């Protein structure tokens, strides 16, 4: 009996967000106190001082009531903060009839709180997207019938039917067939996996193939995906509350201010003098400078494609000394890309890739998409195919121009020639995936795919070190081999592979004991670790919405380098906030001493405090200005042109390696023509490109990225490339000296050096192009 369609479960409603009322009335308080000060001033200048005093006193009362609420809330949490001085100053202003001073203090207090609320942590984290992904029902087989039942009723031993595109509802084992699964939501790895009969399947994976059945081995509450949700919720709940920068300074500033005011009153027996001390002691540098600097930093970060949830997160980001990173989708692209095309004798990479893409264009498979995308990138013409069929877990078959084409896993009945055995060994060593291409039941090529390192990842690591990060750690669910390769290429301090979500959380918590820790990830499986870190950073442009929901920082562009931007901005904003607050408090302390000896009445003190406020605010606003330089559009267009030129030169690079391979083959009949073709492509296409690049692009790079030393390694490798090309040309000239045209022979004594030159050229070209791509990407962001 065919399974009935499963109704899509309605997503759970998000929990209510606290603090909404507060966000409404804090701007209103600022408006009321600002209006009272302005209207009072207008009445006073119009000759109505009594009416002005009444308006100012009303504004002071509004500020006092709000300050009492804030102080009460702080006392309930066992803390005292800067608001206590504001209460004393506002109450004292009313008591001694210094209404204008009270109105000024009320406005500064309301403005500071409003600014700070714009940078305040959300009280409750929203796991809505994570929970929405979790299935609510399952399709259980009961004899010949398939019934849709509540998920919680599924017990171990039940047979569950999972349709195409559906989420596996419980942990279990495949029953009776194979299953093609997208487990990226659990492991972060983009490549689908094939599970055979009896193999274990975890809940949360998505069925990427045909309908299959599994035998449940756990209930829904004991399954993998439910555990991920619980881990994220527990990590959020376990976070310690954040103490405001202003409150940390207030621990000593408040007692000093109160003691000095009390001493002035006791010494002079004049309460007005004590109020004057409290007026200039009102910690507006703390209430304003720190929030202004932090909010300015938030605005600056947003302009760089980094959304920071609140000021507390920005503060901690500026203090971070440890960065923990996921691999797939964070340091790597998160999707397989073609890294090489190996071919049988008589075939070239472009032809193999074009043939494979002609049938793969009809498949939604992630590997098929990679082959089609690479063909488009190389501007290859893809032919239409007929009689296309796809077998999940094996690949796609079809006909192109009357020939039978197969793309996917290698079929056991196909003969494995020498070149194909070399490809298998290479893929095993490199940790690459292989897509085989056969034509009329004969292997003609193999496409190697890997999840490539992001171009901006090496520069990101260097900039993080420069920003003060002293420890970098890679945590990944991937295999140890690829994880170690990435860590080695980026110079990371430690790497841990095969990490489950629970082990990631434990690792992050241990790092937090040592230093303020940032966790960067993009998948649902990273969400618990992001929540457990001091600062969770999500790759929002390509990552899961669940990781973005629990993160403190979301990178909205697909560039991990924005993490370094965010840390630089956070560090600078925090330094400016501390500098502004400390400088403002120093000026306030000096004014307090002057007021204590009776030389500064409350009204004049309020105006002086206003001057101090303006000074520290102007200093704090420096945080909104960026220190980085962005390349102009003309420069970006130029480097994009040369990056596009690299794609056009791929055939010359492939020809170099193919010629070296031909020299290594037992049958060298094709070797000499291959060497001649490679040399011609290098001399006529590659070298002119390199010379023009050195003349036009390198000066632009030097101008924007730090001077001639920036491109010195590129110029050195370009010189070596030209030397090796000349060496190959010299070999060909020597061969032609012993014969003519096609009659020229390939002497055995020249083969070793010629082969070394060609293999060296191929490796050097890949390194040279990769380095240029990395440098150009810094300008093209």
Automatic annotation (TrEMBL):
Residues 1-20 are annotated as: Disordered. Pfam families: E1-E2_ATPase, Hemerythrin, Hydrolase. Residues 638-776 form the Hemerythrin-like domain. Its main location: membrane. Keywords: ATP-binding, Cell membrane, Membrane, Metal-binding, Nucleotide-binding, Transmembrane, Transmembrane helix. The chain crosses the membrane at residues 28-48, 55-75, 95-115, 249-268, 274-299, 576-600. It is a multi-pass membrane protein. It is found in: Cell membrane. Residues 1-17 have a biased composition (Pro residues). Residues 134-233 form the P-type ATPase A domain. NCBIfam families: ATPase-IB_hvy (TIGR01525), ATPase_P-type (TIGR01494). Belongs to the cation transport ATPase (P-type) (TC 3.A.3) family. Type IB subfamily. This is Heavy metal translocating P-type ATPase.
């Amino acid at each position: 009996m065919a399974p009935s369609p499963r109704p899509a479960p309605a997503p759970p409603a998000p929990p209510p967000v606290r603090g909404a009322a507060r966000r409404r009335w804090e701007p209103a308080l600022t408006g009321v106190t600002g209006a009272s000060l302005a209207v009072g001033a207008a009445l006073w200048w119009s000759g109505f001082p009594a009416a002005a005093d009444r308006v100012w006193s009303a504004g002071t009362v509004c500020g006092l009531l709000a300050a009492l609420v804030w102080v009460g809330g702080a006392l309930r949490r066992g803390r005292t903060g800067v608001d206590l001085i504001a209460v004393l100053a506002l109450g004292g202003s009313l008591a001694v009839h210094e209404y204008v001073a009270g109105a000024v203090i009320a406005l500064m207090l309301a403005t500071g709180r409003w600014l700070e609320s714009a940078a305040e942590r959300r009280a409750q984290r929203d796991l809505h997207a994570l929970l929405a992904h979790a299935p609510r029902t399952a399709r259980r087989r009961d004899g010949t019938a398939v019934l849709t039942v509540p998920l919680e009723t599924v017990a171990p031993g039940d047979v569950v039917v999972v349709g195409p595109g559906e989420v596996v509802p419980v942990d279990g084992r495949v029953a009776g067939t194979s299953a093609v699964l997208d487990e990226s939501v659990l492991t972060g790895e983009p490549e689908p996996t094939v599970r055979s009969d009896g193999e274990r399947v975890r809940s949360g994976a998505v069925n990427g193939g045909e309908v299959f059945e599994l035998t449940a081995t756990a209930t829904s509450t004991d399954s993998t995906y439910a555990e991920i949700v619980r881990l994220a919720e527990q990590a959020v709940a376990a976070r310690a509350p954040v103490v405001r920068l202003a409150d940390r300074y207030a621990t000593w500033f408040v007692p000093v201010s109160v003691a000095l005011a009390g001493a002035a009153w006791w010494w002079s027996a004049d309460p007005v003098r004590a109020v004057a001390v409290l007026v200039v002691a009102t910690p507006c540098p703390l209430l304003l400078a720190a929030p202004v600097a932090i909010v300015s930093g938030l605005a600056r970060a947003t302009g760089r494609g980094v959304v920071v949830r609140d000021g507390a997160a920005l503060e901690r980001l500026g203090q971070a000394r440890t960065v923990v990173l996921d691999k797939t989708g964070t340091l790597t692209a998160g999707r397989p890309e073609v890294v090489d095309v190996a071919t049988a004798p008589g075939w070239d990479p472009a032809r193999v890739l074009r043939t494979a893409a002609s049938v793969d264009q009809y498949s939604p498979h992630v590997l098929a998409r990679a082959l089609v995308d690479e063909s488009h990138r190389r501007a290859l013409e893809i032919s239409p195919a007929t009689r296309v069929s796809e077998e999940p877990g094996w690949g796609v078959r079809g006909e192109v121009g009357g020939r039978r084409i197969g793309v996917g896993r290698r079929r056991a009945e196909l003969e494995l020639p020498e070149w194909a055995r070399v490809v298998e060994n290479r893929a095993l060593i490199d940790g690459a995936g292989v897509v085989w291409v056969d034509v009329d039941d004969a292997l003609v090529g193999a496409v190697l795919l890997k999840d490539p390192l992001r171009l901006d990842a090496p520069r990101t690591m260097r900039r993080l070190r420069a920003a003060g990060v002293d420890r970098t750690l890679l945590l990944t669910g991937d295999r140890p081999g690829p994880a170690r390769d990435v860590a080695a290429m980026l110079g990371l301090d430690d790497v841990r592979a095969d990490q489950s979500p629970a082990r990631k959380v434990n690792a992050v918590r241990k790092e937090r004991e040592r230093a303020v820790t940032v966790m960067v990830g993009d998948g649902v499986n990273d969400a618990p670790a992001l929540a457990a870190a001091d600062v969770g950073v999500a790759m929002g442009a390509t990552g899961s919405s669940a990781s973005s929901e629990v993160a403190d920082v979301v990178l909205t562009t697909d560039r991990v380098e924005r993490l370094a931007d965010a840390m630089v901005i956070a560090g600078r904003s925090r330094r400016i906030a501390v500098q502004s607050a400390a400088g403002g408090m120093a000026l306030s302390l000096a004014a307090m001493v002057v007021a204590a000896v009776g030389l500064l009445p409350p009204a004049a003190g309020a105006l002086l405090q206003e001057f101090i406020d303006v000074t520290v605010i102007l200093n704090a606003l420096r945080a909104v200005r960026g220190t980085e330089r962005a390349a102009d559009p003309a420069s970006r267009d130029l480097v994009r042109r040369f990056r596009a030129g690299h794609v056009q030169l791929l055939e010359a690079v492939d020809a170099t390696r193919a010629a070296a391979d031909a020299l290594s083959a037992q049958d060298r009949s094709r070797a000499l023509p291959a060497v001649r073709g490679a040399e011609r492509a290098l001399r006529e296409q590659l070298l002119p490109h390199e010379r023009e690049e050195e003349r036009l692009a390198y000066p632009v790079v030097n101008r924007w990225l730090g001077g001639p030393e920036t491109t010195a390694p590129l110029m050195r490798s370009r010189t070596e490339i030209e030397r090796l090309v000349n060496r190959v040309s010299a070999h060909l000239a020597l061969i032609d000296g012993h014969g003519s045209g096609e009659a020229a022979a390939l002497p055995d004594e020249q083969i070793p050096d010629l082969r070394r030159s060609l293999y060296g050229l191929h490796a050097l070209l890949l390194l040279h192009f990769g380095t240029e791509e990395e440098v150009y990407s810094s300008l093209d962001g």
